[in-house]
C-alpha cells in the first residue's frame, strides 16, 4: 500500500507529506510512521485573502528531530490519504524541501551577532 509514493496524511491536528513506512509499527495497530515528513502549514495571503499551503521539514537547522513522525489514528477517526502526482508542483516542492541543506550559520539582526548552530564537529 503506497509503496514508493509520497502522500499527504491529513485529518488530525497536523497534516504531513512524506513516505508511509510499510512495515508494522513498533507501537502496534493504529500507529503509522511517516518518513521524511514535511509539516503542511496553511497561511492566508495578506493581499489576496486566499489560503495557501506551505510545507516545511520538521528537523530544522539544529537537527533536533529525527526524520520521521509517528501518528496514532483512533479506530473512529476520519483520516485522508492523498498521493502526490510525481509531475505536480507540490511533489517537486517537497523534493526540494527535503533535500535542502540546513543552514549552520544564524545571524541575529537585532544583536548583530553571528553564531554557529548545529552539532559540534
The amount of helix comes to under 10%
Number of helices: 1
Total number of distinct structural domains: 1
Strands, total number: 8
In the predicted model, the low-confidence regions spanning at least 5 consecutive residues are none
N- to C-terminal separation? 40 Å
Q: Helix- and strand-based class?
A: mainly beta
Proportion of strand residues: 35-45%
| SSE succession | EEEEEEHEE
Largest sheet: 6 strands, antiparallel
- Overall body shape: globular
Mean model confidence by pLDDT: 80
Radius of gyration (Å): 17 Å
Strand and helix layout:
Blueprint: E1 7-10, E2 15-20, E3 31-44, E4 51-57, E5 68-72, E6 80-83, H1 89-99, E7 105-108, E8 113-116
Antiparallel strand pairs: 1-2, 1-6, 2-3, 3-4, 3-5, 7-8
Could you explain the architecture of this structure?
- By secondary structure, the protein is mainly beta.
- The chain has one domain (7-116).
- Helices cover 9% and strands 40% of the residues.
- It has one helix spanning 89-99, and strands at residues 7-10, 15-20, 31-44, 51-57, 68-72, 80-83, 105-108, 113-116.
- Strands 1, 2, 3, 4, 5 and 6 form a 6-stranded antiparallel beta sheet that branches. A two-stranded antiparallel ribbon has the order 7-8.
- The mean pLDDT is 80.
